[in-house]
Structure formats: C-alpha cells, structure tokens
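User: Hey, my collaborator sent me this sequence without any context and asked if I could get a structure. I don't really work with proteins. Can you help?
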Amino acid sequence: MTPEAEPAKPAQIGPPSVAVKGERFILLTVMLGVFLAPLNSTMIAVALPDIMLDFDVGISSAGWLITAYLIAMASLQPLAGKLGDNFGHRAMVLSGLSVFGLVSIGAAFAPTLPLLLVFRVLQAVSAALIVPNGSALLREILPAHRRGAGFGLLGAGIAVAAALGPPLGGILVEVAGWRAIFYVNLLLVVPAVLIGLKHLPRVRTAAVKREFDIYGAMVMPVLLIASAWILISFSKGANPWTIGFGVPLVVVGAILFGRYEQRHSDPIFQLNFFRRRPFAASAAGIGFANLSMYSLLVSIPLLLSSRDESSLRIGLVLFVMSAGMVLSSYVGGRMIDRLGRRVPTTSGLIILAVGVLPIALAGQDVSIATLLVGLALVGLGLGLASPGLQTSGVEAVESGQAGSAAGLYSTSRYLGSIIGSAVIAGILGASDVDVDGLGLVFLLSFVAAVIAAVVSLGLRGRAAEVPA
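Assistant: No problem. I've predicted the 3D structure and written it out in structure-token form, which is a compact way to encode the shape of the chain:
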C-alpha cells in the first residue's frame, strides 16, 4: 500500500487541521515520557560518589543502581508492550508516567541504599511501560509518509536527554545534593500527564480477545534477567558455578519457554516477529549499533583518564557524539519519509563504521583529534540510522501488535548495551587496560558497526503497512 493510499489514521482525533495539531501534542507527551529513561540512566552516574558517601557503601553496592535499572528496562519492555496491545497504549503510558513520578519522590526520600535500589527498579518498571507503548501510539496516529519525521524527533530528544543527563546531574548534585536528581523528574512527568490526559487517543484494541499469556509474562522477564546476570558475571571472571549450572539452566529454560510460546495463541514473546525480515533486520541492526556505540562510550573515558585528562575534557569529547546524534536524527527521519527505510538507514550505519575505523586502527594511541572526528561521524551515523530502524520495527507487524514489536525492539537495544559492557569488562579485565585491551575494544566496536550495516539491508525500501 502506498503512503498516499493509506487510510488517514489521524482522523480518529479530528479533521485534518485538528489532527495535525493533536499529533503534535501526542508527540510531545511521548517525548516527555521517553526522555525519562535515558535521562535517569545517565544522570545518576555523577551522583554515585555522593550516594556512596551518604550511605557509606562501596562502588560494588552502589553500582547496582545503574545495573539493575538497565536489566529491568531490557527485560520488561516486551511484556509492557504486550500489555499495551491488550489493554490500550494510552493507559500504559499514563500509568507509567504517574508511577514514575511517585517512585521518583520515594527515591528522593529513601533513607537506605536497599530502599533506594527498590525505587530505582520501580523507575525502570514504569519507564518500561512508557517507551514501547509511546512508540506504538506514534505508529497508530502518524501516517506512513510522516512517521519517519516523528520518530526522528523522538530520536533527537532521546539523544538530548542522554547528553543532558551528566551535566544536569552535576549541577543538581552540586547545588542541592544527590536527591535533587529524582525531584527534577517531576518537571517532565507533571506536564506529560496533564497533556496526555487531554490528547492521547483511546485507540481501540483488537476486537478478538485471546487468553492472556500469564505463564509467559512471568517466565520471560526471569529468563532475560538471568541471562543479563550471567553476562555480567562473565565480565568479572569465569565462575565455575555460573558455567556449570547457570548457563545450562538458562539454555534449557529458554528452549522450553520458546516451545511453549510457539504453541500459545497469543504469546508474550513473539518469535514469529523474527521470521519477518524487516523486523529481524531492525532488531539486529539496533542491537549491534548500540554495542558499537556503547563500546566507545565505556572505553574512551578509561583511555583518556589514563592520560590524566580532566573530567570536563572527557565529557566534551563524548559530547561530540551526542551532538552529532541530535543534529542528524530529525534529518534521518525526514530522509526515510522521502527515500524509503533502507537507504538512509544503511547509509547512516556505514557512516558509523567509517567513524569507528580510524579509532580502531589507531587503538590505544588514538589522538584527541582522531577521536573528535571519529565520534562526530559516529553520532551523525547513529542519528541518521535510528529513525529508520525504529520505524521499520513497528511497521513490520500488524498495528494491534505494535506495542509488542516496540518492546522487543527496545530490548534488543538494551541487550546491545548489556552484552557490550560484559564483553568490554571481560576484555579489559583479561588484559592491562592501558595497552592491548582498549585496542581490542575499539576493534569490537568497528566489527559491530559493520554487522549492523550489513543486516540493515534486510529493511524494506519503502513503508509497507501490515494490515491490522
């Protein structure tokens, strides 16, 4: 179906002029909600020293405030998207926003580290409700010929939030203490809820109600959390208990779970999505692209710290990558609306690989100038590619399953980060960080970028709507 022939879905919320205005408010609500996940993922990093001092704990304990957040986000989004497909994406987004605001207040008042960790996990749970269901809403209300621009704006906003996290967190901690990084979330939550209550559409769920996959809803997060735990454990060394018991248990559990899901009439984990080439290409593309980006994000500060560079200088070097993503995300969205999904996305991922190449060739001896040029290209490439990958993921399935698709897509993104961090920690732990290890990490980043570009060739050229 061509974009011109597609039914005008925005008509659900009024005549054309009103629909476009309504789309803007919907996009604003989704952007405010989705900002919360990357902002709270990066903002807390600068607050960790003060939290450790306040609670008198070490980095191994305080580090779980970051690790548990990422694992929960990765494992719960497919379930959250499925709940949205069954019970309405509007309800999930508004519920997620409301709970996020409440648990942020709880985190700000937490008297102990364990209680703070509970509130951090609840932050991840509520953010997991927002992200896939927000993406599904955009798929519902934006026609195919404007969908890329919408996801491009969303990608630019996510890049801004991720880049803004460390400096904003630093200012808040300096001025008002670490608890202020949780209060600031209300500046996003309150307007998002107020706008969303008025403007988010009540899109009908599928007319045919099937038996909800309760078993899958319980088992899938457990398997994903266990898998992430094993990867993190490997990064700290080959534990015989993990190798001999944990890995076989997870593998057998995954096989049994997969067979059960294949037989269920409406499974939580939609294995059949990966049989659709555009979805498989988008999920694999974002996973490998994120692995490439995260490898640089983790290793470059270690490299520059070993050269006694200041934290400000390190932050400015990394900001070049974020700035590139902000500048090119909206452009990438407009390009996929005009040129189709495949060409701009693959081109962006090729630019990503080209940016990583000189860094990989130079290894641990890479100069600041090479880093700046390479990271600028990395950011530009990721910004151009991200809208096409995300749009293709939610377009590859029926509209009634868009939440599930968005959840699995987001999980693929987070798994790229988790696998990357585990492999990097393993490499750097197995070698002297200052010599061979970082060169190998940069090479891993380049290989992942090349794989992302190759698998993106499986995307559709033009938008092709899958019937509801």
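In plain terms: The chain has 17 helices and no strands. You can pass these tokens on to your collaborator as they are.
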